[in-house]
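ok trying again, last paste got cut off:
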Amino acid sequence: MPDTHQGKAAQIQFSKQSAYYADSQQHSAGESLQVTMDFVAKSPGGILLDQGTGVGFTALGVRDLATEVIATDISSGMLDQAAKLFTE
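nice, full thing came through this time. structure:
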């Protein structure tokens, strides 16, 4: 993303909220996560790109179903939380 005022503001805002997202039951176990996991399970073994991964719940949920998972996010704070999640 280009280094714009809006892009920088989004990075800052999501980084500030990253700990909240990491502790959120709604994000870590919501219905949409299960729907995504069920969809990926229909064709396991590929490469999955999780753009806007946030703290990584979707990437973590499908990692055993994919050959490779690539997770990316605009917020370094969110990626820091994702790294913690993947090492737990």
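cool. The helical segments are 5-23, 25-29, 31-41, 57-62, 76-87. The chain has one domain: 5-87.
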